[in-house]
From TrEMBL:
The lineage of its organism: Bacteria, Pseudomonadati, Pseudomonadota, Gammaproteobacteria, Enterobacterales. It holds the Pfam family ADH_zinc_N. Residues 14-218 form the Enoyl reductase (ER) domain. CDD domains: AL_MDR. One of its GO terms (molecular function) is oxidoreductase activity. Belongs to the zinc-containing alcohol dehydrogenase family. Quinone oxidoreductase subfamily. It comes from Serratia rubidaea. It comes from the Bacteria. This is Zinc-type alcohol dehydrogenase-like protein. SUPFAM superfamilies: GroES-like (SSF50129), NAD(P)-binding Rossmann-fold domains (SSF51735). SMART domains: PKS_ER. NCBIfam families: adh_fam_1. Keywords: Metal-binding, NADP, Oxidoreductase, Zinc.
Amino acid sequence: MKAIVYRQNGLPIADPQSLYETDLPKPQPGPRDLLVKIRAISVNPVDTKVRNGAPTDEPRILGWDAVGEVEAVGAEVSLFQPGDEVFYAGSIVRPGSYAEYSLVDERIAGRKPQSLSDADAAALPLTSLTAWELLFDRLEVKPDEDAALLIVGAGGGVGSIMTQLARKLTGLTVIGTASRPETAKWVKSLGAHHVIDHSRPLADELKKIGIEQVRYAPA
């Protein structure tokens, strides 16, 4: 199969060897694995961090967010079958999704939403998991909690998902930040109650909307 790999970490991205195409053996699924034919991927900060910091002796495939079709399954797989469309953020200790095929444990895969394109669905897994874990695992927000949530950079990947989760699943007053008019409009369209400008002192911006303090401000 064709794959995009690196071997030498830390090279400038303009260097032809920083990422290059090569041919590798098609992976074979283990007992709980899905062999997925990749149709779309997304790029995350973890991809650049691994490439810059993790040396490797063999060609390494980056990329963890993916959408694709299950082509084959391991002997113990019970949740999916060939032909199913899936999306997932894979494991950082396994080869990634910058390839024609990848393996993923069925227990960390989900069925691709039918209402989304492949590209849109591929943008969701890691950002959505991060936003969910911040809200409900780290901050332990309760669904009926009456408090304010400040999301700095609410127009970004994690921030935009967190805005929607907070509005849909909690009673929090959601305050997003943005510094450009088009981004502020986008954040408002996601459901934020208020949008303030993070290029200005946040305390002053909060006072303008009648809020003295916020209970939650994930960073």
